User: What shape does this take?
Amino acid sequence: MSRALPPTAAFKLFSTPSPDCCRSDQVLQLSTIDSSVPAPGPTTSVNNAAFAIQGIEIMTGPTSPAPMPTAPFGSTGHLSSRIIFGAAALGSMSPERAAETLSQLEPLGINHIDTAESYGESEDRLAPFLAEHRESFFLATKTRYRSGDEARTSLERSLERLGVESVDLIQLHNLVEDDEWDQVFGSGGALEALVAARDEGLCRFIGVTGHGTRIPGMHLRSLNEFNFDSVLFPLNFSMLSSTAYRDDVEALIALCQDRGVAMQTIKAIARRRWQETPAQQFSWYEPIADVDAITNAVHFALGHVTDGTQSLFVNSSSDARLLPHIAAAGRSFSEAPTDATMTEDQERLDITPLFDGGTLERI
Assistant: This one.
């Protein structure tokens, strides 16, 4: 039986020895940071692990959980975990809570972090962790600026905040508006500055990201202008119900496969825009909280490209409470669920697209 997470719980996940578990290699413990959260009831069995809430140990079963799958991140030469940590989750966290969240990444098999200068305190929260773990992670950040001078200053500021000499990937953040696109690609624009920064060793690769129904088409336009190393775009079952959006996504995937461009997806577990603003809001949209539906949604995104030459990656939600479940779905992936299964989840949970090409096109 599926269970939803409590609305205010915050979790920590760590490994401990398990002498009392028959042939179990690992016991994971999940406990609430907020002790006011009421116990939700029995544990939920998910992918051979029983997830509990109030300080209950989670037995992984008689064998260790499957390892997190990795795939080539485009043509960068890096084998990235197919679940990427979306570090927007750190934006409003305390240093202590951020440290607890980041301590989960290596046990979960995640080796790729995606942040942005505009994600609140995210880059600052990453700095202490990166001081000890920089070599273990592919590190990406973003700039929202369109002029060359501002983009260069933004990148330098990110390096200072992160406490690193360089990042693996710098991305043009949400490049979807025509006038901004013209500025980025024009003389003195952000792209020119980022190419210079790459040549100086401040970054290794350059990517482009975006939200909304227009972004696959804009990425196609961007890729026809410059050989970006990665793209990022929304992908979930409800958005692909639009024939126009699906056609643009398929065209983008085909081009990326042909050129060896890495493909990151966001909003895999989006349920809908908030109908009522919650007391505590960890994401600008309402994520799916039903564990079985999270698994299906992640599997759907991971399974959208199956030819083995290029794989889609799923960036985790900014609601860090869901990270263990997203990672568990990544580790258990074998194939995409059927459309019938996804339709059942969509109808049961009233899942609707975040973007519609009109009134709901922008964040």
User: Anything to note?
Assistant: The chain has two domains: 11-59, 70-349. Residues 11-59 form one domain. The CA atoms of residues 107 and 319 lie 19 Å apart.
